[in-house]
Amino acid sequence: MRTAPAGYRRERLDRGIKVRSEDVFVLAGWGELLYRAGPRLAATVLLLVFPLLRPWTGEYWQTVFLVALAMMLAAVSWAFLENVGLVSLGHSLFFGAGGYLTALVALELRAPALVAVLVGSLAGSLTCALLLAPVLRLRGVYFSLVTFALPLLFSRIIEATKILGGTEGIVGVPGLGSLAARQYLLVAALLAAVFGLQRLLDSDYGLVLHAIRDNDVGVRASGIAVGRWKLAAIAVGSLPTSLAGGVLATHYHVVGMSAFALDYSVLPLTAAVLGGPGTMAGAAVGAALLVPVSELLRAFGTLRVVAYCALLVAALVAVPEGLFSLARRRYYQFERWVPV
Amino acid sequence: MSEVLSVLLYGLVQAAVLLLVALGFSVTFGLSGIPNFAHGGVYILSGFVCWYLLRKLGWPHLLAAAGGVAVAAVVGVLLYWLVIRPVRRLVLAEVIATFAAGVAMLELFRWMGLVTYEFNLPPVVAGSVTLGELAVDAHRLAVVAAAAGLGLLLWWFGRATRTGLALRAMAQEEYTALSLGIREDFMATVSVALGSALAAVAAVLVLPLGLISINLGYDAMLVALALTVVGGTERTAGLVLAALLLGVATVAASVVLGPHWSEVIYLAAIVAVLAVRPSGILGRLKELEERV
Amino acid sequence: MLRGRVLWVLASVALALGVWSPGARTAPVEPVVLGVPTALGSIEGADSLRAVQLAAEEINAKGGVRVGAVRRPLQVVSIDTREHEPGIPIHDALAALEKLLTERRPHAVVVGAFRSEVLLAAMDVVARYRVPYVVTIAMTPAFEARIASDPAKYRYLFRMGLQSEYFAGNLARVLGYVKSRHGVSRIQFVHQDVLWAKATVGFLETWARQAGWTVVSSDAYPTGATDFSASVLRARTGRTQILVPVFDMPQSGVLLKQVKGAQLPVAVVGFISPAVPATAWQAFEGAVDGMVQFVAEPGPLAVRALPKSVHFNRAYGQKYGEEMRMKLSGHGPGPSYDAVYVVAAAIERAGTLDPDRVADPVQRQAPGGVRRAAPGDRHQPGFPVARSWAAGGGVPGAGCGGRDPAARGVGPVSGG
């Protein structure tokens, strides 16, 4: 971050401990093991332990934690779709679909809340995949514009036709156990999403997905049905967000047009861009930072949104690789000046 | 019969309004490939600037309008240098960054509390005109005239002036344009500033029809998007045709079905056109760029 | 270089925010906390909060609330739920409500939700947290319906203020007077697409048809709409004679402007909430000229027959200044002021702050309350004063003949 002194250049090298803990040598000692597993372990432990800290944090921060988990899921899902080249500017579509379908399953089919949430989120992500199927062949900006328009379209249709409760929304959605139960459900989902989706992206499937992002014509020329892969990617990628929408519906006992609000589209976007596009963990970290900050800013009302947007622009312009990637690089590598 | 006539007349006015609002965005996007999603923010910003100059400082109407346009152009330049240039050519980053800038502007106004009735602009031309059995504000007719005039002006600009041709060259073939000595940064700045100035002109003409309401900023963005998508960015004729279609359709829908349906129409039009003909109704298909 | 600087700025901001949280945690000694979670950005919400603070100050000046053996002062805490904004962000409003309930732990909530949609959604949250909750702004009848469906669960919820049915009833009397006096029969409703307005217009439409009106149309506009030409067109083709706007957003002033601009031969009789205060003429730049504006409650009006309203008016002006008094909104401040006294009295009667014990006395306040027609409905407490507020008691207005007490003409003639 500093400019090089005259006659020198910057050199980045892997840290010794990283090299020593690569591959099978990670088993050589506790230091190596902790170096590798440490960050992940620490994050997982923090997620699992936070709900137990209720007497110290108070009820309010526990609710914020729940909302943060939901947003982390949405951010991870956004980042996954971005890795496939499907940048969605309307992520609230998935959120709202999950919420509404959960409410419908719970109230119309009179299912117990847990079943409603699981079935509703699955149905939500499948519905969204089907909705987006006709436009999957669009690329880049054009696809994003459609995703931008769809949640707005649905909320206007709901407002105009008064289906699904109209402006009032669907009220009386049953609760899902206690707050802690909801939190742990989302923690489990988050861990599955972050680690599972990252694994998926690092595997051979992920190779195809990245190729679709980079050069879809080439992928098609290789005989792979790009459309079907994209469809599958959307179905899988939107599931975490639908789940988040469903669980929050049971928390607030209501689902309304506001589930399709711009807020739920901008936040995962900002979180993923801030944390680091490309990595699931980065998106989660970004959301984990943004949500508490946004709550702290609640007293400022709409200034909050101004702050998000300013942050987004700053992140895009100045820190395009994201905070998480920055941190990870610092963790694994060190820099020094060497003479040219 | 008079019902149909009034719907057509109001539809024409609405088409003119849509065209004015979308012109700035379309110019920047079509002429130089920059999707400036802060268009709605600049639109409302210039409305407030004009209001301030007119109401608080007491400038004459025309001067206040010119002030609004000037401020908008400056904001456009700033927008390019601070926000767009660092992420130039990364189309999605441009979209997101400008969109965030636009939302930031609009929500800042909302936080400042600029939402009451007092924030309105007076009509450019006062009074009403009676055409047969219909009475229409003179201002609305002025809007139609202005839209037609601006449309023609921009068409001429893009075809017959050096700057216009240079801008189009840059949008079509960046490297060739560069090799011909067309300076990219300067041209892009001109294009964004022009788009913002047009947004300001639209604001001064269109906002007197209602209030300077922050939601109109989001609506303006949506309208601009709808017209650009439906009409395509290649030809001004496409934009005009899209404006006429959407204008009459929304007015007819509001009268027949209800006021909610006007926004539904814009959004449905965006989705439908993108699904079927992404280049727009009059656009020539650029398949390799848009779809697999 | 840029990146480093940006990161430093981000880090400092984050640190500063972590250290300084605007929701201050310093608590005075054992006060009785009254929460006000409402749309503080709206004039009704802001004025209601001020009315609540006024009432709390008056009670504290007299020594506070007696809880058992101890006298404790009242403390008012509030949070802005932003629910009056277009798009009605219900989730956000509920999050704000929850923040208030969990962080500040109010012993009772007054004023409550601004939007009926948020109110209905908030009912379950309130039931979960078991806090006495007195609504004074939102007007939907669905509130009572839900309480009736599960009285045990919703026993903490009360309304002290108008309900759409009675609001519509009063407005109907004005319209009936206009009809009998001027012999008109073609009516058109233009309203905001929110629950209270929809319910009001629903009742009005039914009444109008029965009373022999021809209803040209009933147009709903989303909150934040600024173009009402569709209604103007329909009014022209349908030859409307009476236009009834029912709005709480300031953009509705544009409707009045457009009606004038199109030179429609209609008389405007209705309720536009921001046009109620005496300053409406300037605020709307004369667009309200000729409109007969219905006033929901005599909060902004001092009615000699209701001495408490005179006192309220004067005290409000003394505390907040004459300009604020002139700008008092037509819906919310009056009942909110009363609600504080009701809650204080209930606490004193119960002798404790336990929500279950407080809920009962709130219920048993003066008989009848606002809903005169429904004895035995114990969820609408109110002093007899509140009852007659809703029934009218108003100022004869210019242009209305003075016979109907519930209407007030707006124009340069009428004063504060």
Structure notes:
The complex is a heterotrimer of chains A (340), B (292) and C (416). Chain A has helices spanning 16-20, 30-49, 54-83, 92-108, 113-132, 140-161, 179-202, 204-214, 216-221, 226-252, 263-275, 280-296, 303-318, 323-332, and strands at residues 8-14, 170-171, 254-255, 333-339. Chain A is mainly alpha-helical and 340 residues long. In chain A, the strands form two sheets. In chain A, strands 1-4 form a two-stranded antiparallel sheet. In chain A, strands 2-3 form a two-stranded antiparallel ribbon. Chain A is globular and about 70 Å long. Chain A starts with 7 loop residues before the first strand and ends with a strand. Chain B has 292 residues and is an all-alpha fold. Chain B has a domain at 12-214. Chain B contains twelve helices and two strands, in the order ααααββαααααααα. Chain B is globular. Chain B starts with a helix and ends with a helix. With 416 residues, chain C is of the alpha/beta class. Chain C has helices spanning 2-19, 43-61, 90-103, 116-129, 142-149, 164-182, 195-210, 229-238, 253-261, 280-283, 307-320, 322-326, 333-350, 355-363, 384-391, and strands spanning 32-38, 65-67, 70-72, 74-80, 108-111, 133-135, 157-159, 186-192, 214-221, 242-247, 267-272, 292-294, 407-409. In chain C, the strands form three sheets. A six-stranded mixed beta sheet of chain C has the order 9-8-10-11-12-13, sandwiched between helices. In chain C, strands 4-1-5-6-7 form a five-stranded parallel beta sheet, sandwiched between helices. In chain C, α7 links the parallel β8 and β9 (214-221). In chain C, α2 (43-61) packs parallel to α13 and α6 (164-182) packs across α7. Mean pLDDT of chain C is 73; it is low at 21-28 and 366-416. Classes of the chains: A mainly alpha (340), B mainly alpha (292), C alpha/beta (416). Chains in contact: A-B, A-C, B-C. The A-B interface holds A 87, 89, 134-135, 137-142, 144-146, 148-150, 152-153, 156-157, 159-160, 216-217, 220, 226-227, 262, 266, 269-270, 273, 300-303, 305-306, 308-310, 312-313, 316-318, 320 and B 35, 82-83, 86-87, 91-93, 95-97, 99-101, 103-104, 107-108, 110-111, 222, 225, 229, 257-258, 260-261, 263-264, 267-268, 270-271, 274-275, 278, 288-292.
